Amino acid sequence: MAAADADAAPMRPANGSDVLIRSLKEQGVEMIFGYPGGAVLPIYDALYKQPIRHILARHEQGAIHAAEGYARVSGKPGVVVATSGPGATNLVTGITDAMMDSIPLVVFTGQVASGVIGTDAFQEADIIGITQPITKHNYQVGSVEDLPRIVKEAFHIATTGRPGPVVVDIPKDIASASAENVPDSPDVLCLPGYQPTFYPNFLQIRKAASQLAQAKRPVILAGAGVLHAKAASELREFAETNRIPITNTLLGLGSIPGNHELFLGMAGMHGTYTANMALSECDVLLNIGARFDDRLTGNLERFAPHAAVIHIDIDPAEIGKNVPTEIPIVADAKEALKSLMKEGGQPPDTGAWLEKLGQLEKNFPLWYEEDPSHVLPQQALQLIHDITEGNAIVTTDVGQHQMWTAQYYGLNHADRWVTSGGLGTMGFGFPAAIGAQLAKPEARVVAVVGDGGFQMTAQELSLLQEHRIPVKVVILNNEALGMVQQWQETFYEERYSQSLIPVQPDFVKLAEAYDLKAYRIRTMQEAEAIFREALLSDEPAVIDCRVKRQENVYPMVAPGRGIQEMIGVSAP
Questions:
Q1: Is 172 an annotated catalytic residue?
Q2: What is this structure's pTM?
Q3: Number of CB atoms found within 10 A of residue 364's CB
Q4: How many separate domains does the chain show?
Q5: In a shared domain, residues 155 and 232
Q6: Which label site among 181, 286, 337, 487 has the fewest CB atoms less than 10 Å from its CB?
Q7: Active-site annotation holds for 99
Q8: Domain range holding 492?
């Protein structure tokens, strides 16, 4: 139906779906990612004449990963709508991913009518039971009158404290029920069981400042909490004032410029030698917004054995969970850093420590062996960095390409790194790039993906054409599940069981089938001209970059080892 026809259509009585849309507008929602179906038809009917933009993904997984990318870059919650049953269950991976990586989402799922819930009705699934362990909170709406309150609470919970996903399950009869006299959202929220601690305890801040002042070998570990708190400038000021070196978790990258003199690189399983040795030898470790996950710490018994640990986190459940903490500070990262700077005091004497770390960086840099007969992924990423000047928004899936990007694409700004960390989700990077580009239309967005993960959500290429979204998709194509292959080579005596993908689509033809510009790179001689043309264009593009199949990510910490026990630290 054309817009003029829609304007002429008879007005129907207001219903629960109209209340939902009104509540979303009250929350400032400008964009929804979704996929319609029977249980949410009333919601889509209510959307028909509303100014909220809807992005129709080609699979619910694409919708929710795009919403994650949108949320990560915009700072606003991503909003998702899917139907009951398979529509809702197709969102489970994305919901879990958002929970693990603290991404604010509000997910609306359709449900069968209230009267048949529990009868195994057509397309019924217990999405409340399914998502209870993987959400900050979830709701099943019991009446139209509850909708305004629930929507307001859902957005508040998703975006405050440690961000995360909230699911709102709406039975179809509630979405269709009359709503002539439903009030607006309540003015005051009443959530007595949910009161995040935003400001730090000043006595703990004083203890932390005193501990740091006495340190000889301090290190700052900056995680994603710094970025969620918009505290990158405070982190940089604090580190520069006190001359304390910084390392990042995978999700914390970008909180300090990649070329900053105090930045040691990423730490953990594929971190730099300098970063891992700094964590292993430090006497005070200031953790800001990181959760000490296993890929960072390695063997916990050998992690930071000499350090007094100061842990700043807005989620008290993370403090002391994995690593014993001497000084816990429950607070927003920005407020804690502001309080530490206000406390002042004598900066620690770190001259000798910085000199030692600088020598380690010089002696043990990241490395790879050039191979004139192949394009190396490290070279490709350095070239992408040079062409984009390190200013692009970069998204990835999980695997070798993710680690190479973290190592070789030096991020110069905060909030330009979108990756699946905690869950490690294949298929995440490309739709996340779509959401990121929609959040920042003026930015240059590059999705670096593997050939395996890209095939999981490649159908979302249609969105690039439909909405002229200028995402650049770089496929580091080694015809394998790269990280699986690397582990099989290293730990399973080169038994490559089901990790090689010799038969795959022609990605150039696939992109051209969607009427998109596409390129193939086979040599370094081709790489610079093609990358420059594609990356600097204002149009979407797909680049099939054929890289050396058995190139591995180094350094690497083997499972069960301490992070100081790295293999592949220097060239053989």
A1: yes
A2: 0.96
A3: 16
A4: 3
A5: no
A6: 181
A7: no
A8: 377-553
